[in-house]
Amino acid sequence: KQWYQRRVAITAGIKGNVGLVFSKEDPVLVRDKLLENKVAAPARAGALAPVDVIVEAQNTGMGPEKTSFFQALNISTKIAKGAIEIVSNVHLIHKGDKVGASEATLLQMLDVKPFAYGLIVENIYDNGAVFAPEVLDITDEQLLSKFQLGITNVAAASLAIGYCTEASLPHTIINVFKNVLAVAVETDISFPEADTVKAFLADPSAFAVAAAPEAEAAVEETKEEVKEESEEEESDDDMGFSLFD
């Protein structure tokens, strides 16, 4: 039954002009290698343009007798050094439009092959699973961020409805500890964490005074470093000798 399901999953994607590529390499490497191999192709009259075609401003090297051809396509030109020069970039063909005979002729005259054709990866089969090639672009960081977002949502929902889960348990413990600490502050209950909070509430200035020496020590260290650097620079300046000494 499992083999039949795999066969159905594979055959479902084999429709039309489809080829199969078998490889033991990393699917990402195989996909990229297939997409890299493209063949430049000229624009043919009647074909649908897969991309926009823009003719850049340039000296075409054609003689002035071809001016009427450019005018028929509404392309601004001028004569420079005896040749036709396209004044500005021209959006000749829009993506999805049919290529006209005049546009195809112009591109052929300019020796421009605007289109490129190659393989398109439709589906990938790996370890019994069939999936779209876009799945290969998903990184570990994206998976981790989605997983973390899911845990956050589960924890938020659990806390909102009062249902304890593994995701919400750390938050529940913290909230309970806050409540215990609040009760201890208002009563005679004593434990180390509560005693610290009580001491802070009784005399906040004591904690500010205790933190001040550390800040002053850090400032003094910074001043000493700056002083040492300035002394080194002065000593380096003294090493220079003048030709007139």
Q: Report the helical percentage.
A: 40-55%
Largest sheet, in brief, is: 2 strands, antiparallel
Mean pLDDT: 81
Number of beta strands: 8
**How many separate helices?**
8
Spatial arrangement of strands, main beta sheet? 1-6
Secondary-structure element order, N to C: HHEEHEEEHEEEHHHH
What class, by secondary structure content?
mainly alpha
Radius of gyration of CA atoms, rounded to a whole number: 37 Å
Strand content: 5-15%
Low-pLDDT windows of residues: 235-245
What's the N-to-C terminus distance? Answer: 99 Å
Using the alpha-carbon principal axes, give the shape. elongated
How would you describe the overall organization of this protein?
- By secondary structure, this protein is mainly alpha-helical.
- Helices cover 49% and strands 12% of the residues.
- It contains eight helices and eight strands, in the order H-H-E-E-H-E-E-E-H-E-E-E-H-H-H-H.
- It has helices at residues 2-11, 27-36, 67-72, 101-109, 140-161, 169-186, 192-202, 204-238; strands at residues 38-41, 53-55, 77-80, 83-86, 90-93, 115-118, 124-126, 129-131.
- The chain has a two-stranded antiparallel sheet. A two-stranded antiparallel ribbon has the order 2-5. It has a two-stranded antiparallel sheet with strand order 3-4.
- A hairpin with a 2-residue loop joins strand 3 (77-80) and strand 4.
- Helix 6 crosses helix 7 (192-202) and helix 7 (192-202) crosses helix 8 (204-238).
- The radius of gyration is 37 Å and the shape is elongated.
